[in-house]
Amino acid sequence: MTIRVVLADDQNLVRAAFAMLVESARDMEVVGQAATGREAVELARTGRADLVVMDIRMPDLDGIEATRLIAADEDLAGVRVLVLTTYDTDEHIVEALRAGASGFLVKDTRPAELLDAIRTVAAGDALLSPGPTARLVARFLSAPAVPALTVGGPEGLSGREREVLTLVARGLNNTEIAAALGLSPLTAKTHVSRIMGKLGARDRTQLVIVAYESGLVTPGDAGRA
């Protein structure tokens, strides 16, 4: 299946470079290029996109608001958003995740990593791995000024589901969760899907946010299985 990608960045050269890279992959095609957040939302709709690679800082409508509009639109329910960030300086990244983005990566990432990130997010997985990425998310989620995510908490989960949620928040994929808990990968995947259903979470990224907000996982736990 070909992944239909919209590229949103206000810098023409950046968009052009990303477009050449995406078009070089046999399983992807660029269906639109946007210079503003508003254009990104429109192109996600008209281009029947699977994924939007979204810069945060754009004129007219920034990437956070554009992400929020995409996530709130029932007609765009299948569209994933992969946010670009400068990492150390962009403190809006968790706002974007709360708005509905499924992951983020740094702008100076290697070409192969960008393509892998697009495949990961398009497949419905969160792009949140152990280490610096998880610690960055944890640090901002611990800030009291950040508004709460409007999904359920882990109170209604079973003990096993809480264990699975904890491992998701620590950055483990389904295979790693299965190995850690002595389950089959299919069972681990089923647990993750059931947890998302119970909490009303859009994807694994929101599960990570719920785990941190509820205190099930603390910033000191990030990246530690």
TrEMBL record:
Q: Which Pfam families would you find in this protein's record?
A: GerE, Response_reg
Q: Identify the InterPro entries for this entry.
A: CheY-like_superfamily, NreC/VraR/RcsB-like_REC, Sig_transdc_resp-reg_C-effctor, Sig_transdc_resp-reg_receiver, Tscrpt_reg_LuxR_C, WalR-like
Q: What are the 4-aspartylphosphate sites (modified residues) in this protein?
A: 55
Entry keyword set: DNA-binding, Phosphoprotein, Transcription, Transcription regulation
Task: Show where the Response regulatory domain sits.
Answer: 4-122
Domain (HTH luxR-type) spans 150-215
**Mind listing the GO molecular function terms for this protein?**
DNA binding
Q: What is the protein name stated in its UniProt record?
A: DNA-binding response regulator
- Origin organism lineage: Bacteria, Bacillati, Actinomycetota, Actinomycetes, Kitasatosporales
